[in-house]
Amino acid sequence: MKTYAPETKLPPNFEGDVLGRRLPPELARPDSIEDAARRGEVKAKIAEVRFPHLVALDLSAEALAIYRRRYMATVKDTDAVLQQFFDAANREHLLDDTVVIVTSDHGEAFGEDGFVTHMLGDSGDFEATHHVPLIVVLPPRFARSAASIDRRVSIANLAATMYDVAGIDWSAFALRYDGWARSLVPLFTTVPPPVARAIPPERSAQDHREAQREREKAMKSIGYIH
Questions:
Q1: Does residue 1 have a pLDDT over 80?
Q2: Secondary structure string (H, E, C) spanning 140-154
Q3: Average pLDDT of span 113-123
Q4: What is the distance, to the nearest Å, from the Cα of residue 139 to the centroid of all Cα atoms in its chain?
Q5: Cα–Cα distance measured from residue 65 to residue 71, given in angstroms and rounded to the nearest whole number
Q6: What proportions of the chain, in percent to the nearest 5, are helix, strand and coil?
Q7: What is the C-alpha separation between 177 and 159, in angstroms, rounded?
Q8: How far apart are CA 114 and CA 55, in angstroms?
Q9: How far, in Å, CA of 65 to CA of 110, rounded?
Q10: Is the pLDDT higher at 7 or at 28?
């Protein structure tokens, strides 16, 4: 499904691949910047994300608008697929007893705070990369009217929340793991009595070195690290 027409005019020297674009000297060789203030600014930006291609100081507003527009086109494509999924689920009455949670692990920066990425940890522009949607749609049996809750929460709360709405006692996880996130269910409905109990897996030694090597290989393949 095509949701947007190809651009008929692009800015001079525009490169469609952010990671593959040719960097200007100040990003490629920041130590060569004569102005001390600018040199400090550029080096701080690069240090914040580790990869100079994720710094947007060289990108024009027009280029950033194109990247954003293309990104939103892929979002619309995903929306269309999800609409088909939910239409089918509704026809089969699967939503009559299903809790639907819509959220995301991050947003995306297109020039906000000088970056074009989401790999910012706790840094970067909050609205662009951290303020993501969280929509909980309850089935009719919860008898809860629509409401907007203005409170900062985290997707770390979702595991306990899903256990609660499913009627599963998750207290064993809270005892096992320090800082286990609380459930969000009390914010929008009554916690149903548990009908089952979650049991944490047995502790075992795990070797993550191979997984780390695979992640580094993937990062190198897309140009994030060299």
A1: no
A2: HHHCCCCCCCCCCCC
A3: 85
A4: 26
A5: 10
A6: 45, 5, 50
A7: 13
A8: 6
A9: 8
A10: 28
List the one residue out of 192, 165, 189, 198 whose CA is nearest residue 98: 165
Averaged confidence pLDDT in the chain: 90
DSSP-derived letter for residue 97 is: G
Q: Are strands 168-169 and 134-137 parallel, antiparallel or unpaired?
A: unpaired
Q: Where are the alpha helices (H) located in the chain, listed in sequence order?
A: 25-28, 36-49, 61-91, 126-129, 158-165, 171-176, 185-188, 209-221
- Residues 106 and 119: their CA atoms lie apart, in Å, by 9
Contact of 55 with 46, CB cutoff 8 Å: yes
**Dihedrals phi, psi of 134, to nearest 5 degrees:** -140, 105
Report the alpha-carbon distance of residue 23 to residue 59 in Å, rounded.
Answer: 10
DSSP label at residue 112: G
Rounded Cα distance between 219 and 92, Å, is 41
Instruction: Give CA separation, 18 vs 15, 52, 56, 69, 81, in Å.
Output: 7, 11, 9, 14, 26
Tens of pLDDT along 49-97?
888 999 999 999 999 999 999 999 999 999 999 999 999 999 999 999 9
Burial of residue 180 (CB within 10 Å: 0-12, 13-18, 19+) is middle
Of the pLDDT bands very low, low, confident and very high (cuts 50, 70, 90), residue 224 is low
